[in-house]
Write a structure and sequence with these properties.
The chain is an alpha/beta fold. It has 29 helices and 24 strands.
């Protein structure tokens, strides 16, 4: 970069000064110091082309950031750390002022409380001496762990800011420490929590990462709203959906209880308008509310395969039809069970019913013996008005076609969900992203004291950062205690949500960075060795999660409705999993399950559920990890963000690039389904299981519907409970259709 003596620069405080190339040299040399494979002269050369007389110093800094970001490639991956340093320097100037030292921690907290952006509870819980002690414990050098994509994502989505003016109020380490200070009362626990969050061992979900320390105390990632078959219940549910959408939560809806179109009401005085008009009301409630400036609302609607309107429901997202008979802004999950698969394989008919007319059928759904007995009874009954035979294959083909074309028709295996999880009471639905299974009870009014709205309180463990057994134990313990604290710290906009959460205390702790973890261990994703490593790892994690909850039960007591779980009956995941998984990997265990069983019998558990595998699309960028349990789509990913496209390289690219299995290179989904089945063996709720379909692997580029149907049957056989996105290449090489949760609500 050459000195330009005729050029002046506008400083941040408004004064002008002559352009100094030496200042740029110092900044760029600082940003590249100690980082291999980068050149400060290349950054300056790119930046020089964009300079002009009168440019502001902040714009020069932004040009340097862009220059470094543009140089990120598979051949020069470390520019992502140079760009991150430059971005962090800019962030610190904005938040700390003009020096390079952090703001006094107490003054910083007081200022943000005075500005109305921080919860005053921080100053109420901690005195000046304690705040000073915790401030000195903060390690701002941990900002160097961020890549450019990660830090930019954190700034865009998670750091507290005025979303009208763009003013940012905090830096990353201050944010992590304040989250810990809000949730815990013991200084040692605060320090331990801060260490887990700031070193990326625990992956916090959007509501917690963006919300804890602010005045909005609602940190549920998702809620499950079960809708009853009457007007009061329907409109109370719509009210609840609006309240939770406005507070950052994604929505799971169950309309399987509702009667179909043309059903008589009050003895035929009124004819029912069907599901679609009510779905439009739910769609409006979800989409009319902005989620604190972070994202729009989203919902997934659950419907059983035997509902009389199922054929119309499955096509609601497609582009055919008119606005009158489509509800495209909701997603749909179709619920199946053994009876459906048996008839599909035998090429037989199924029968569609009205839940209102076929009494008890809905309540039996999920218990195969009871359901089949009632189902056969109603098939033979002549008195039912709403009964229609349809080939099971036709329903499966409609489902598969809509799933392939939209990517957003999901499925739930209701019997697997009930038989192979921790609940001992019936569960009828899942959530937005399909990883949560909860028992629910419809509300009859917005303040119904007897209703239950299921609440998802989530986090994930970053496998790549858990280097040994002690790390796993500590991270599991801290993840459980973090979410335990969230339950008591947060507010509840609807009483039914509080009823569920306070009585059942259900947690959903997942894993992320599986592909990076496998690559680090030189194990290919779709190999037998992967199943062995996954089995060993998931066993260790689930055992430690249960142990951490048992430890809390010993301290505080078991949750109020512990008796509604299989844990209370002395059962553990190694007892209730679907035994067909043994065909994939032998049940060899390393943990002391019998010792754990004795402790659970003695003390109970503080939580009804402990694990769920959620998408981690957003937060994986922050931690530079691979998304959840999925194989990577490319070694260099392009993520759409508010300020353009972010480049993210897979972890340990230089050393492990040859040990990553690319999703689009896998000729079928069997490898992913096998990995998912082994994970599901230990998970007590469910998983957001995404599958990939690459047109180039099929003759003439046409994916047969039979491929999707076979994947569905295969997953069911090995105990999978839910299928989420069906991903297909979008054609631009950078983004994929159906890949990102629209709201990100339960995608942590």
């Amino acid at each position: 970069m050459k000195e330009n003596f005729n050029m002046q620069v506008m400083k941040r405080r408004g004064e002008k000064e002559d352009f100094s190339v030496e200042k740029i040299h110092k900044v760029v040399q600082w940003a590249t110091k100690g980082i291999n494979g980068v050149s400060f002269s290349d950054i300056e050369m790119n930046a020089n082309l964009s300079l002009y007389d009168g440019i502001s110093s902040s714009e020069i800094h932004q040009i340097l950031i862009k220059s470094a970001n543009d140089l990120i490639s598979v051949n020069a991956p470390n520019y992502q750390y140079v760009a991150a340093r430059l971005l962090n320097m800019q962030l610190r100037k904005e938040v700390w002022g003009y020096g390079d030292r952090p703001t006094d921690f107490l003054l910083y907290i007081e200022r943000n409380v005075d500005n109305g952006v921080y919860d005053p509870v921080i100053l109420e819980k901690w005195n000046e001496k304690q705040i000073d002690l915790l401030g000195r414990y903060i390690n701002h050098n941990r900002d160097d762990l961020f890549t450019y994509a990660g830090l930019q994502q954190l700034i865009d989505k998670y750091l507290v800011k005025n979303r009208s003016t763009g003013v940012i109020y905090e830096t990353p380490q201050f944010a992590y420490m304040c989250i810990a200070m809000c949730l815990f009362d013991d200084i040692d626990e605060v320090k331990a929590a801060y260490d887990c969050y700031s070193t990326f061992k625990i992956n916090l979900p959007t509501p917690i990462m963006a919300g804890v320390r602010t005045n909005i105390r609602q940190f549920a990632s998702c809620v499950l709203v079960d809708v009853d078959d009457n007007l009061d219940a329907i409109f109370s549910s719509i009210h609840a959906v609006g309240k939770y959408t406005a507070r950052r939560a994604g929505i799971g809806l169950n309309i399987g209880r509702m009667r179909p179109i043309n059903s008589p009401i009050r003895g035929g005085e009124v004819i029912h308008t069907g599901l679609i008009p009510y779905l439009k009301n739910f769609e409006s409630a979800v989409k009319s509310t902005s989620q604190n400036g972070l994202r729009g609302g989203s919902a997934t609607v659950h419907v059983p395969f035997w509902h009389y309107e199922i054929e119309d429901i499955m096509v609601l997202k497609n582009n055919a039809g008119t606005d009158d008979n489509r509800v495209r802004k909701l997603d749909y999950s179709i619920q199946f069970c053994k009876l459906f698969y048996d008839r599909l394989i035998a090429n037989e008919d199924i029968t569609l019913f009205s839940p209102e007319e076929a009494k008890g059928l809905y309540e039996a759904f999920g218990d195969n013996d009871k359901f089949e007995e009632l189902y056969l009874k109603y098939e033979n009954a002549r008195s039912l008005k709403f009964k229609k035979k349809v080939p099971a294959r036709k329903v499966a083909e409609i489902f598969a076609r809509e799933r392939l074309e939209t990517g957003r028709i999901y499925s739930m295996n209701i019997d697997n969900a009930n038989e192979h999880g921790s609940w001992a009471v019936p569960a009828y639905m899942s959530n937005l992203c399909q990883e949560i299974i909860h028992p629910t009870k419809p509300i009859q009014s917005i303040d119904d004291p007897d209703g239950e709205i299921g609440i998802c309180i989530l986090s994930a463990l970053n496998l790549l950062e858990l280097g040994n057994e002690k790390h796993v134990e500590d991270a599991c313990r801290m993840a459980v205690r973090t979410l335990e604290a969230v339950i008591d710290y947060q507010d509840y906009p609807v009483l039914a949500g509080e009823n569920f959460t306070k009585n059942r205390r259900s947690l959903g702790i997942g894993i992320t960075n599986l592909a990076g973890f496998l690559a680090k261990n030189k194990v290919m994703y779709d190999s037998k060795e992967a199943l062995e490593l996954v089995h060993e790892t998931m066993e260790q994690i689930q055992w430690n999660l249960i142990n951490a909850s048992c430890e809390l039960a010993e301290e505080k007591g078991a949750c109020e409705k512990f008796e509604d779980t299989k844990y209370a009956k002395g059962l553990l995941p190694v007892d209730w999993y679907k035994k067909e998984v043994d065909e994939l990997i032998k049940p060899k265990y390393n943990m002391d399950w019998e010792g754990l069983r004795k402790r659970v019998k003695k003390h109970g558990l503080r939580h009804s559920t402990l694990s769920a595998i959620m998408p981690c699309e957003s937060s994986s960028v922050i931690q530079n990890s691979t998304n959840g349990i999925e194989p990577v789509r490319s070694l260099l990913l392009y993520k759409k963000a508010k300020n353009g496209v972010l480049k993210q390289l897979v972890p340990n690219y230089h050393m492990r690039k040859n040990h990553y299995t690319l999703a689009w290179d896998m000729t079928d989904n069997k490898g992913m389904l096998n990995v998912a089945a082994v994970i599901q063996k230990f998970v007590d709720m469910s998983m957001s299981t995404n599958l990939y379909y690459n047109y180039s692997h099929y003759e003439d580029g046409n994916i047969p519907l039979s491929v999707l149907i076979k994947d569905q049957i295969y997953g069911y056989k090995y105990g999978l409970k839910n299928f989420y996105y069906a991903n297909t290449p979008d054609g631009d090489g950078e983004t994929e259709k159906g890949m990102n949760c629209e709201s990100g609500a339960c995608a942590i």
